[in-house]
Amino acid sequence: MQELKAARIAGLCLTVLGGLSACSGSGSQDLMGPDTSEILFDSGSGSSGSGSSGSSGSGSDGRIRIEARLNPIIAVDASGHARSEDENGTTRDRFDSQVEIDKDDLGRLGIDAGDGFGDEVVRLTVARNGAVVFATLMRFSENRVNDITFERDIRGGPAPELRAGDVVRVSVNGTATLRGTFRLQ
Question: What are the two backbone dihedrals, phi and then psi, of residue 25, each rounded to the nearest 5 degrees?
């Protein structure tokens, strides 16, 4: 009798998980719209059919590197990159990102240079098949002559498992600013 109950519960769980997977989309198109910075949840690494060749998991030499060049989606002088390097295991995994914003565009992005730059909200999100799989806040790192820089560096187990084809977005103080797609390097 207990085996029958366990089988019914397992079947229900598979049905629910299958339904959630179907709702998350099966294509590689970006469904999130121009700014997903307020949607913060982790959908895990399921629901993508890209396999291990485009993921940042183990590869033929045990190391996978993907990178996204971040380009402006509004009329500002800003750019950046996001990179993920995964090796077998998690101790040597790394995710790093950097965004540079020209000082001439600070006002357009709601950045007040008079009070420093530590209070600016620079949010990086990564979406896969329309679902946010990773989100983080970037930290102010450098005030140069012509621009300011925000960075994020995560090493080891906390580094996210990302894949080629994942879409990266950066918003600055709530304004969608940069976008890019991870590519295998």
Answer: 95, 155
Rg of the chain over Cα atoms, rounded to whole angstroms, equals 19
C-alpha–C-alpha distance, residues 25 and 4, integer Å = 33
- Cβ contacts of residue 170 below 8 Å, gap of 6+? 70, 80, 99, 122, 123, 124, 125, 138, 177, 178, 179
Strand partners, 55: 163
Q: Is the Cβ–Cβ distance between 170 and 163 less than 8 Å? A: no
For 82-103, give the DSSP string: EEEEEESSSTT-EEEEEEEEEG
CA distances from 35 to 17, 116, 121, 161, 171 (A): 27, 25, 14, 22, 7
Mean pLDDT score across all residues of the chain: 76
pTM: 0.67
Handedness of CA 166, 97, 74, 116 (dihedral sign): positive
